[in-house]
């Protein structure tokens, strides 16, 4: 049950995080109290959703307000304590606590939590770096928080994969009426006209089959029962027959039982955009632009490139991560990343890293060329449902590359009660 699973997070990893926060004390402990209140508020919200049907928008805002207020309080606490010796701790929580907003995200709430977890990674890495030689409690604290959000993501993946589930049936949300049922879909084709059918009873069917077999057993004599077509019965010899009723013809609006649908009009081209929204750089609908440059970005920034074609993006400096989504024939050049480079639903794209990148993720992409630097040879490449992926490994200092394809074909054998999967090399 989703409520019990959420409670497991509160009693498990979150409780461990709170205990470590109290052990550190000071500003960290005070902010942790706000974090606890935020999770408790969301727990009440999830419990309400498990017992109720979807509310109206106004009621939904009222239900979300306790969680939203706690998130704002956590972020304000960081802003009021900028001189704190634990400012990196406070910032790590402040940057990633918006993960609790997953209840308003659809259809990918799980990846949203991961994105928020990554957003706080810049500061958790600082905590790990600054305290690993001083006090192991701070190291455990940072890992406990990361694990808390990771388990939240797993919880969402299991119980609310495409969005918050309102599990109640015709039961109003406490404090407000449930949302009205959706209107019936419009534009559905009417059922096709029924052709007149004869009696198809089981007994009749049996008699018909007997008669059919009897006729077949006649052999060559079966043709004797055929009726001769005279010249008076042929329309090309008897024009008067052409004035008779026309044979049955299905209505023009219906084909094979479905309504004919006109071809959709061409999608309206959206204007290109290149904007910075807080920690996010949004680059969308660029076409034929080879001069896209992200400069003056910070290490906690994220770059999102969407539906661009025949364009090149260069990212100067070190940022958190970059995502290329639904792009065609685009190139990406960047210095270094803290987290990962992701390619989703792309076609014929290229990337080149000049510094270091820990992870490259490729999903539903056809054609991805990855040029690595000497510092990025420890990269982890994760691919799924993709093809034509090649890794270009630097060869010495000459500037040449060795091309290595990522396997696309696999062979799976059954070994007892388990599976053994290996790559299949192309012999062509």
Automatic annotation (TrEMBL):
Coiled-coil segments on the chain, per record: none
Superkingdom of this protein's organism: Eukaryota
Entry's localization field: Cell membrane
Species name: Aedes aegypti (Yellowfever mosquito)
GO annotation, biological process: actin filament organization; cAMP-mediated signaling; cell morphogenesis
The protein's name: Adenylyl cyclase-associated protein
Domain WH2: 208-229
Lineage: Eukaryota, Metazoa, Ecdysozoa, Arthropoda, Hexapoda
Gene that produces this protein: 5580331
Region feature Disordered, mapped onto this chain: 231-269
GO CC annotations on file: cytoplasm; plasma membrane
A UniProt-annotated Pfam family: CAP_C
Regions of compositional bias (Low complexity) in chain numbering: 259-269
Alphabetical UniProt keywords: Cell membrane, Membrane
Segments forming domain C-CAP/cofactor C-like: 264-406
Principal location: membrane
PROSITE patterns the record matches: C_CAP_COFACTOR_C (PS51329), CAP_2 (PS01089), WH2 (PS51082)
Keyword S-adenosyl-L-methionine listed: no
GO molecular function: actin binding; adenylate cyclase binding
Keyword Transferase: no
Membrane-related topology note: Peripheral membrane protein
Composition bias, Polar residues: 231-241
């Amino acid at each position: 049950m989703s409520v019990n699973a959420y409670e497991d997070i509160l009693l498990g990893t979150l409780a461990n995080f709170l205990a470590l926060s109290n052990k550190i004390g000071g500003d960290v402990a005070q902010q942790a109290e706000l974090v606890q209140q935020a999770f408790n508020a969301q727990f009440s919200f999830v419990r309400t959703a498990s017992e109720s049907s979807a509310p109206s928008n106004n009621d939904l805002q009222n239900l979300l307000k306790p969680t939203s207020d706690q998130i704002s309080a956590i972020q304000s606490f960081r802003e009021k304590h900028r001189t704190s010796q634990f400012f990196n701790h406070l910032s790590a929580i402040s940057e990633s606590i918006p993960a609790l907003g997953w209840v308003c995200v659809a259809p990918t709430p799980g990846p949203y939590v991961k994105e928020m977890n990554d957003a706080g990674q810049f500061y958790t890495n600082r905590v790990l770096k600054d305290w690993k030689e001083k006090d192991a409690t701070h190291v455990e604290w940072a890992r406990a928080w990361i694990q808390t959000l990771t388990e939240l993501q797993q919880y969402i993946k299991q119980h609310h994969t495409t969005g918050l589930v309102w599990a109640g049936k015709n039961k109003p949300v406490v404090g407000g009426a449930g949302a009205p049922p959706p209107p019936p879909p419009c534009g559905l084709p009417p059922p096709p006209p029924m052709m007149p059918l004869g009696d198809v009873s089981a007994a009749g069917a049996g008699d018909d089959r007997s008669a059919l077999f009897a006729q077949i057993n006649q052999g060559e004599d079966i043709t004797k029962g055929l009726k001769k077509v005279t010249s008076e019965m042929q329309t090309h010899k008897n024009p008067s027959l052409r004035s008779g009723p026309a044979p049955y013809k299905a209505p023009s609006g219906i084909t094979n039982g479905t309504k004919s649908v006109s071809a959709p009009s061409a999608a309206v081209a959206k204007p290109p955009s290149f904007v910075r929204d807080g920690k996010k750089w949004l680059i969308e609908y660029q076409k034929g632009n080879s001069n896209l440059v992200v400069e003056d970005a910070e290490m906690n920034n994220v770059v999102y490139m969407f539906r661009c074609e025949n364009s090149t993006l260069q990212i100067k400096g070190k940022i958190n991560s970059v995502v290329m989504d639904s792009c065609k024939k685009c190139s990406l050049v960047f210095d270094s990343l803290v987290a990962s480079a992701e390619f989703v639903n792309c076609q014929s794209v290229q990337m080149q890293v000049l510094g270091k990148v820990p992870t490259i993720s490729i999903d539903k992409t056809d054609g991805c060329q990855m040029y690595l630097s000497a510092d990025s040879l420890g990269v982890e490449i994760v691919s799924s449902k993709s093809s034509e992926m090649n890794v270009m490994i630097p060869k010495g200092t000459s500037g040449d590359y060795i091309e290595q394809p990522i396997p696309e074909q696999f062979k799976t054998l059954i070994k007892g009660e388990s599976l053994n999967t290996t790559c299949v090399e192309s012999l062509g």
